[in-house]
Amino acid sequence: MDILSFSPSIDSNIISPDLVDFFSTVKASNGVGKIYKVLYYGQSIIEQNWSVKVSDYLRLRFGAEVFEFANSAIGAHLAERLVKTAESDVYPSQPDLIILHVNGSHFSYEKLVSNIVKFTSAELIIANDHVTHPGELREFTNPWLIRVTNLLCRAIFFAFRERRMLNWRSWINNIFIRRMAYKYNLSMIDVRYNWKQYVLQQRLAPVDLTVDGAHLNDIGNALMERIFVASFDSVFAKIGSEGTPKYLEVSAEGFVPNDDGSFDFKFTGTKIELVLGNVPTERVKLLIDSVPPTQMPGGIQYSRSTHFPGTNWPVLLRVGSAKGLRVQGNLSFRLFNFSTDRKEFEFTLTINDGDQISYGNSREGFLVGDIVVAPDDWNVSHAVDVLNITLPDEFIVSVAGYSVGVDELNAESYTSGQRSLNGRIVLLAQQLPLARHLLHIDCLEAAKLHSVRIYSPQAR
To answer: Is this structure's pTM higher than 0.85?
Structure first.
């Protein structure tokens, strides 16, 4: 069962030209300037050790200081839940590369993918699942054959329930995920094909690569690492000497200020950054569409909520917003008066340790000001069912609302900005509506502006 002797096939992968372009840009930077953020997201499989090994390989290939890796996966959370937690786990950090391995409803899967494309400028790699059932080694991969056998199975449902389950897993892994890659111009790593090839060549059973029929043992982790490394190598073989950035950069050299020294800049995009060539000589106020950037949609983000003790599972999957504007500061939910099965409860909400307290319960929707919590945003029942975890009679769940972007340029925003070859990069706003916007800079000369960077999903 020597993994090193196995040569994964990369022919069934889908490699987006944008992914090649991304790594060309990384190579061209030669470790100078931008640090590229890589995020692993999904469930327990992508939490396993193979993802650490893949990160080590990328560091070895490009340098230890080029990438910043994070893994925000949550075990036993299907796409239906991850589409909620992504609001705190994925979009605020604006990764440059996301590696996604997710199971669950195909409707929620596509919603998650489309939101990542809409709310970030990240390059996205999606991967299908490994096989866990002997029947999957000879599964149907032709969409018409799957459809016909499903229709036949419905006529004699009980006799062919297992066949329908196998067809579903085959459809979502071999057809649906591939469709997502083509639809959204993504890259796809075909884990499933190579997994079947290895198991068949070695005359193993799928369970031999797992510890419990699903999660990977040492051999399974090594095989997953091998598939990803081979897939990345196929991308690296195509990279050029320079890449095309995922943004439009407009030099400030030709900018002409208004009579009062201010400057107005029209742009269409969902994210905007300023590159400052030097420290601003005074505090320079900024507006987007006549509003401070942190008051725009996406200007305030919510953190992942308090975890269940001993886990990384959030008690509250998301906090919604009625008008797209969030509350800055601390939201403190006090859970109490639990039902006998510990799945339902009442709660109070206190904002920024203030005196105003709002009451709600887990059975009904909650709306106070712009804060929205739906019954299925709570994760308590799921934790009881899956982990048999129960909370104490009183439990505090905290969510932090923090600003993303800046409302003025000053010495602090300059020094905290990320280094680049031309100065410091300062994020103004992200997750803006894809529309025409107007940036107003109070004093162009004092801003010491080198250029403006505009990001848009249309770049895909």
So the answer is: yes
